[in-house]
């Protein structure tokens, strides 16, 4: 079992940056693909970014490409999401997820989820 806990959310103004962290416990994240998803009020949860267990392959949603960066520190069992140039439309609850093996953009393929952290971007 893997337990995931996000942190780093908050209220920022448009154009500012935030870094989210996802700390794992219970089991190493090695061999696990990691991803971030988000859910805005009244909307379906959507894929944001994913990173292979080796850290070599990343995937981003078009809406965040060039602004967000996903990274991981396997020694700390932690995954990060650096969010720059934030926009009001980035406002959502951000959740990290893990699955054994390769990453996908499909939330149903992820086995482990954190509780989420709120990100609010004011205009």
Describe this structure in words.
The chain has 123 residues and is mainly beta. 0% of the residues lie in helices and 51% in strands. The protein contains no helices and 11 strands. The strands form 2 sheets. Strands 2, 4, 5, 6, 9, 10 and 11 form a 7-stranded mixed beta sheet that branches. A 4-stranded antiparallel beta sheet has the order 1-3-8-7, with no helix packed on it. β7 (68-73) and β8 (78-83) form a beta hairpin. It is globular and about 40 Å long. The mean pLDDT is 94.
Note the topology.
Blueprint: E1 3-7, E2 10-13, E3 18-25, E4 32-39, E5 46-51, E6 58-60, E7 68-73, E8 78-83, E9 92-100, E10 112-113, E11 117-122
Parallel strand pairs: 2-11
Antiparallel strand pairs: 1-3, 3-8, 4-5, 4-9, 5-6, 7-8, 9-10, 9-11
Provide the descriptors you would attach to this structure in a database record.
123 residues; mainly beta; seven-stranded mixed sheet; four-stranded antiparallel sheet; 51% strand
Short description:
Helix content is 0%, strand content 51%.
Total strands: 11
Give the class from helix and strand content and strand pairing. mainly beta
DSSP summary: helix tally: 0
Global geometry? globular
Between the first and last Cα atoms, what is the distance in angstroms? 40 Å
Strand content: over 45%
Give the fraction of residues assigned to helices: under 10%
Q: Which stretches are poorly predicted, pLDDT < 50 over at least 5 residues?
A: none
Mean of residue pLDDT values: 94
> Main beta sheet, described?
7 strands, mixed
What Rg do the Cα atoms give?
13 Å
> What letter string, H or E per element, gives the SSE order?
EEEEEEEEEEE
């Amino acid at each position: 079992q893997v337990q995931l806990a996000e942190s780093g959310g908050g209220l920022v103004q448009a154009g500012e940056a935030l870094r989210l962290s996802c700390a794992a416990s219970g089991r190493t994240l090695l061999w696990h693909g990691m991803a971030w998803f988000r859910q805005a009020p009244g909307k379906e949860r959507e894929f944001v970014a994913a990173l292979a267990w080796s850290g070599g392959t990343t995937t981003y949603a078009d809406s965040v490409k060039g602004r967000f960066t996903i990274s991981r520190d396997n020694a700390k069992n932690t995954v990060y999401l650096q969010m720059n140039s934030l926009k009001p439309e980035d406002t959502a609850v951000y959740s990290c997820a893990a699955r054994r093996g390769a990453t996908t953009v499909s939330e149903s393929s992820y086995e482990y989820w954190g509780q989420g952290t709120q990100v609010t971007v004011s205009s």
